[in-house]
Write a structure and sequence with these properties.
Butyryl-CoA Dehydrogenase, subunit A, domain 3, 5-stranded antiparallel β-sheet, elongated
Length: 176
Amino acid sequence: MGLIGLLAEIAVLLCIIGGIVSNAYLVGTCDMLRLGGGLLGQIGPWRADIYDRNTGCVSWNKSDVDDTLIKMGRATSMMALCFGFIFLIVGFIKQCCCKLPCAQMLLNISGTCVTLSLALVWPMIRSDVCDQYGCTWGGGATALTLSMIFYFAASVFSCCMREPRYVRKQQRQQEQ
């Protein structure tokens, strides 16, 4: 697994970082859904910019969000961010620090959970707000797509990584 494993490690690291960045953008954006084709404002899972309020891109109050699909989008976008950090930490500990029991299984589970959590953000377009005003996808939808692609690629490439550092070190010591 020499060079290919090293390239897989680099790909996993870059994909996880790309996934976390685009997922963080998704959580902080107002531009996931554009209300009325962008004429009435825009909303994201956690923030909204409604033009008649003139408040700019601000956080939603709990009283403002009464729709189950928007609440699901909020919860699952944040869950995905948490699973992404778990994926990063487990991968780092597995490859660089110490032996971790069931490390590959933990990577697979966190990669699956992050991808499923992000998939559950898409139904926000069927929320009551979108039924009332009509919605189109904005830049946050692109970030959501990229985040899903990055995390999926990281999950796939995590199976191709080299042996962990402590195993390679033991093998070198045995050869000497």
